[in-house]
Specification:
Elements: H1 5-17, H2 37-59, H3 70-78, H4 82-91, H5 95-104, H6 109-118, H7 124-133, H8 142-157, H9 164-171, H10 175-185, H11 190-200, H12 207-215, H13 223-226, H14 233-236, E1 258-261, H15 269-276, E2 280-288, E3 301-309, E4 312-317, H16 318-321, H17 325-335, E5 340-343, H18 346-356, E6 367-369, H19 370-377, H20 386-394, H21 414-435
Parallel strand pairs: 1-4, 2-5, 5-6
Antiparallel strand pairs: 2-3, 3-4
Helix pairs in contact: 2-5, 4-5, 7-8, 10-11, 11-12, 19-21, 20-21
Domain 3'-5' exonuclease: 258-436
Organism: Paramecium sonneborni
Protein name: 3'-5' exonuclease domain-containing protein
Length: 436
């Protein structure tokens, strides 16, 4: 282990600054310091403060358990025995406590890698914490990262709110993820797992599972993909009835009223002027997220920008429009226009859009946050998401199956278009309901 050079150096600098005569003898005994009484007291106050700070850092996030007494900590530091103490902790497999000492005492990063190498599989979560906090090299920790990836993928597969049909769609084209899905889902529902394997021509390593896949003759299609329609996905999957969910057709909005804008050529002046001159607009965004999500996943990026007018909804492909000067100029004009812009977490969404074109932290004009209006009407409610607002005001929910979609992929399914368009359009309806 590396010694406490930084800490001792800071003490030494403090002593020198106060012109204290000192002589430190490095041994297993206490450092012997020869000082006059005045400066000894000043140093003791300073040293006690440093020990207190270190003690607070070491004890943080360990509930109320005290890892070490402050008197013991002071003794270890003065005797330069912290390295030995940490080594004893590691020998006794008290890795979290050891890490807290190393972190508080500012050991060099090489020691953190050594600590990780000594830990075993059951300590993977702590290992990932150390890797992230100490910015260690991913190449030296592939085993930990692979473990985290598999655990996150398994958690994602079995999230109850995401239908297995949707999970399969998200993994299409990635045979490794589909194989993982089949092998893990086989324990829960053999028939569904076998069907996923058959229609995607997936081979698995487990011979017993593979034999059952080979024995299957009848192959069905993914209901979500086969029966795609301009409807909520839960209606397509028959997990909910139409009268339980809000549909665009409830407001006389059909597929023809939703316009996809995939490139600059489709972003014509007529559309831009129609948006900029509208008294009210509902807006929302959809982002692509790397799956599965781990501590080391890249940040999500906005892929779709939805703008709703009373009888028309525009879906802008921001990925393809980012380099368009016409789009960039429109975004800036729209941000400061007199048009009322209504949404949920609207300022955050719009700042992300502006950040994508290299513009940040602007004061936005005429933006309305729906969650604030909801709290004014229902001050005791804790949830404020759009679906909950709809349930409280209209007695129906928004279908959220398509929320986790690959919004980069084209073409979008009709159900995805319905979902994205409705999220923006419902903002107008909620706002005008609050106004009444």
């Amino acid at each position: 282990m590396i010694g406490l050079s930084r800490f001792i150096s800071s003490i030494t600098q403090r002593l020198q600054k106060n012109t204290i005569s000192y002589n430190i003898v490095h041994s297993n005994k206490v450092y012997e310091m020869i000082m006059d009484k005045k400066n000894i007291r000043e140093f003791e106050i300073y040293f006690d403060k440093r020990v207190k700070i270190l003690s607070n850092i070491i004890h943080s996030n360990i509930l109320n358990d005290k890892l070490i007494d402050e008197a013991k900590l002071k003794q270890l530091i003065l005797q330069n025995k912290t390295s030995e103490y940490i080594e004893d902790l590691i020998k006794n497999k008290k890795y979290l406590i050891a890490y807290k000492f190393m972190n508080a005492l500012q050991y060099e990063s090489v020691s953190y890698q050594e600590l990780i190498n000594l830990m075993n599989k059951k300590d993977m979560k702590l290992q990932s914490k150390i890797i992230k906090e100490q910015h260690l090299d991913f190449k030296d920790n592939e085993k930990v990262l692979n473990y985290l990836y598999d655990e996150s993928l398994r958690f994602f597969i079995f999230r109850s709110e995401i239908p297995i049909e949707k999970v399969e769609e998200l993994f299409l084209g990635d045979s490794t993820k589909l194989q993982f899905l089949v092998e893990n889902y086989f324990k829960t529902n053999q028939q569904v797992a076998i069907q996923i394997a058959k229609r995607n021509k997936i081979k698995v390593q487990n011979p017993n599972i593979q034999n059952k896949i080979n024995d299957c003759i009848d192959v069905t299609q993914n209901t979500l993909l086969q029966n795609d329609d301009f409807l909520p996905s839960e209606v397509i999957l028959r997990t909910k009835r139409m009268d339980q969910l809000i549909l665009l057709r409830d407001f006389d909005i059909s597929r023809e009223n939703v316009q996809m804008i995939e490139n600059e050529d489709q972003l014509n002046d007529e559309i831009l002027n129609e948006i900029l001159e509208a008294p009210q607009t509902g807006i929302d965004t959809e982002s692509y997220q790397e799956l599965p999500q781990t501590k080391f996943s890249s940040k999500s990026k906005v892929c779709l920008f939805q703008i709703a007018l009373p009888k028309k909804i525009f879906l802008l492909n921001t990925v393809k429009l980012l380099q368009s000067q016409k789009y960039q100029q429109f975004l800036m004009k729209y941000a400061f226009s007199d048009t009322l812009k209504i949404g949920q977490n609207i300022r955050q969404d719009f700042q992300q859009l502006l950040g994508q074109i290299g513009t940040q932290n602007l004061e936005l004009k005429n933006f309305v946050e729906l969650s604030q209006l909801f709290w004014m009407k229902f001050p005791n409610e804790k949830k404020t998401n759009l679906s909950f607002q709809c349930l409280k005001l209209f007695g129906k929910e928004l279908d959220k199956v398509e929320q986790i979609s690959n919004w980069q992929q084209r073409p979008l399914r009709s159900a995805q278009i319905h979902y994205a368009a409705l999220d923006a359009f419902i903002c107008l309806k909620l706002y005008n309901h609050y106004k009444q």
